[in-house]
């Protein structure tokens, strides 16, 4: 009887010790919170199996500007080792949630208030973020530094497929003018060496105000006279003015490049960008 009791106690101690070790291992893993899923993808690619990344916004229909954090969100942010956010007004609500350490992508790449906030469309900025995270994780968890660096280099190799695509597009762009519904795609257009011809119109749309009559007439003229290589339409916009411009483009055989501000469900960041960049390439080849 005593032997059986001793064996049972020994088993219980062993199980409890195992559970304790497992809980400690889980607690030791790096916890990262990102405001959006495209930054979450970068973090997870570098972190790999050595931690967990949670993206607060992972629904393409959710506007980061208007997001209202819940108590659960605040708890996740407070417990995270690192909080990654865009900055320059795009997702500033996260700064109110008392995270232990924040990384603003905007600050990392030298952007300031008033600059275009759609930084994820700047592929070199995504490469910079990947490198920064590899350095951060390597310092935090030195014994796995090689692992983080290898992960980062593998992901950077994927991202460089996008910069190569942009370079090839730029060879044929030759500084041509394009028009945009709003400045979502502008960083990519700059890399492709196109010039946005309706910045005032686009800024009004981004600010959720109606473009002026003058701006509308100018854009209509550019479309009617085919003075632009193509029109970039953010398909997540619900503006009737934009819808009418897209219709006018179709009537005048002006190509439309369709983009989104948030990452579509089921696509990686590289797949998302590739699909949009190749629309431009297809227009060039027609």
TrEMBL record:
Domain of life from the UniProt record: Bacteria
The keyword Signal belongs to this UniProt entry's keyword annotation: yes
Subcellular location: Cell envelope
An example Gene Ontology CC term for this record: cell envelope
GO biological process, one term: cell adhesion
Keyword Signal recorded: yes
GO MF annotations in UniProt: metal ion binding
InterPro entries per the UniProt record, alphabetical: AdhesinB, Bact_metal-bind_prot9, Lipoprotein_PsaA-like, ZnuA-like
Keywords (A to Z) from UniProt: Metal-binding, Signal, Transport
Signal peptide (UniProt feature, chain positions): 1-25
Principal cellular location given in the protein's record: other
Family designation: Belongs to the bacterial solute-binding protein 9 family.
Protein name: Periplasmic solute binding family protein
């Amino acid at each position: 009887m005593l032997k059986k009791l001793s064996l049972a106690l020994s088993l219980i101690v062993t199980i409890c010790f195992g559970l304790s070790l497992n809980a400690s291992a889980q607690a030791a893993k790096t916890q990262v919170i990102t405001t959006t899923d495209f930054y979450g993808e970068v973090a997870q690619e570098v972190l790999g199996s050595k931690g967990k990344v949670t993206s607060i916004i992972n629904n393409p229909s959710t506007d980061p500007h208007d997001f209202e954090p819940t108590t659960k969100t605040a708890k996740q942010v407070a417990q995270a080792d690192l909080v990654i956010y865009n900055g320059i007004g795009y997702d500033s609500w996260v700064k109110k949630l008392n995270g232990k350490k924040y990384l603003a992508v905007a600050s990392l790449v030298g952007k300031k208030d008033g600059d275009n906030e759609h930084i994820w469309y700047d592929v070199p900025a995504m490469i910079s973020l990947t490198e920064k995270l590899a350095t951060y994780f390597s310092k935090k968890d030195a014994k796995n530094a090689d692992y983080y660096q290898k992960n980062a280099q593998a992901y950077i190799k994927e991202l460089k497929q996008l910069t190569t695509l942009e370079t090839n597009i730029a060879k044929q762009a030759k500084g041509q003018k394009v028009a945009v519904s709003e400045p979502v795609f502008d960083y990519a257009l700059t890399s492709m060496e196109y010039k946005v011809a309706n910045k005032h119109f686009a800024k009004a749309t981004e600010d959720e105000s109606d473009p002026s009559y003058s701006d509308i007439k100018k854009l209509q003229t550019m479309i009617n006279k085919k003075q632009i290589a193509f029109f970039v339409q953010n398909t997540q916009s619900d503006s009737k003015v934009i819808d009418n411009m897209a219709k006018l483009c179709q009537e005048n055989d002006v190509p439309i490049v369709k983009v989104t501000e948030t990452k579509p469900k089921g696509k990686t960041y590289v797949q998302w960008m590739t699909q949009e960049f190749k629309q431009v390439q297809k227009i060039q080849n027609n």
